Amino acid sequence: MNDADIAEILAPVSDKEDAKREEKVRAKFWQTVRRAAKHIPFMEEVVAGYYAAMDKRTPLRVRGTLLAALAYFVMPADMIPDFIFAFGFTDDLAVLTAAMTAIRGHIRPEHLELAREALEKG
To answer: pTM value?
Structure first.
């Protein structure tokens, strides 16, 4: 996956499209986390990103970036389908890495704490 592909995925969209992404993320996030936990080395940050995306105090631009990355993450059939053993989450990893790098300063301590608690519960 190249930088242009990632930029296209993370590009701003309309409020209506952001709302669709949020709905998709809310519906499929935890199921995908359980499947991907072994493949994404920074899952705690991804889950913290989820909590930041759902936090109305997070700036809209940041929420949009997070929702775009998380919506891509929860889609089972993306550039490399997630069911392909050992390779299925590599494109998700690239998109998530780019998004998390761009918004890292907006992940609050409470988002990280919620992520830790959620992952400990399994």
So the answer is: 0.85
